């Protein structure tokens, strides 16, 4: 079954350069089939050769050894990604202002209380299982909510994708 492998923080802000052609080649070397990428921000769609989580861990290790940096990879199958997209709790005025942030795990309940203290201004966020949903009132470039601080409070790793990107990845997953 095809899965989406979302790399955290690649090819943004001048750090962690990961050429998508080389990522596709690496995935094939590791035994994946039906390999595609979507835009240059670390969205790999592939059928892994076995357990998707083990494949993600191998991708993390091999990217570190080849490119000199370690970035977490969050995995979602088509059904889980579709369910997360469908569960987005905020009105979508512009899909570029609404984000899905797949998380590495479901945050502990004590972390919810700590996260509630993170100022959001006019922005909104909601935690649904192992997905964080965010809607920026004026776009991510003018965000009042500090998502990095929110993730630290939740004590999990996540990687943000706007709903336009999520929809494109879902289309590639089929």
Low-confidence segments, ≥5 residues, pLDDT <50?
none
Strand arrangement, largest sheet?
A: 2-3-1-4
Beta-strand portion reads: 15-25%
Given the helix and strand composition, which structural class is it? alpha+beta
- The separation of the N and C termini measures 10 Å
- Assign an overall shape: globular
The share of residues in helices is 25-40%
What would you say this structure looks like, in words?
By secondary structure, the protein is an alpha+beta fold. Helix content is 36%, strand content 22%. The chain has a 4-stranded antiparallel β-sheet with strand order 2-3-1-4, sandwiched between helices. Helix 3 packs antiparallel against helix 6 and helix 4 runs antiparallel to helix 5. It is globular.
What topology does this entry show?
Blueprint: E1 3-7, H1 20-29, E2 33-38, E3 43-47, H2 52-67, E4 73-77, H3 78-86, E5 98-102, H4 109-116, E6 124-128, E7 131-135, H5 147-154, E8 161-162, H6 163-173
Antiparallel strand pairs: 1-3, 1-4, 2-3, 5-7, 5-8, 6-7
Helix pairs in contact: 3-6, 4-5
Summarize this structure as a short list of keywords or feature phrases:
174 residues; alpha+beta; four-stranded antiparallel β-sheet; 6 helices; 8 strands; 22% strand
């Amino acid at each position: 079954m095809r899965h989406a492998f979302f790399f955290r923080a690649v090819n943004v802000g001048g750090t962690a350069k990961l050429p998508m052609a080389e990522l596709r080649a690496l995935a094939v070397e590791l035994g994946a089939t039906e390999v595609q990428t979507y835009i240059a921000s670390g969205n790999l769609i592939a059928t892994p050769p076995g357990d998707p989580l083990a494949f993600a861990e191998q991708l993390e290790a091999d990217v570190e050894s080849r490119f000199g940096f370690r970035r977490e990879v969050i995995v979602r199958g088509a059904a889980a990604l579709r369910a997360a997209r469908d569960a987005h709790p905020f009105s979508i005025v512009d899909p570029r202002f609404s984000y899905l942030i797949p998380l590495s795990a479901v945050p502990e309940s004590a972390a919810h209380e700590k996260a509630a203290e993170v100022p959001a201004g006019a922005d909104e966020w909601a935690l649904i299982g192992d997905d964080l949903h965010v809607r920026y009132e004026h776009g991510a470039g003018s965000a009042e909510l500090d998502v990095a601080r929110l993730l630290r409070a939740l004590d999990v790793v996540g990687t943000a994708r706007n709903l336009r990107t999520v929809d494109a990845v879902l289309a590639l997953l089929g």
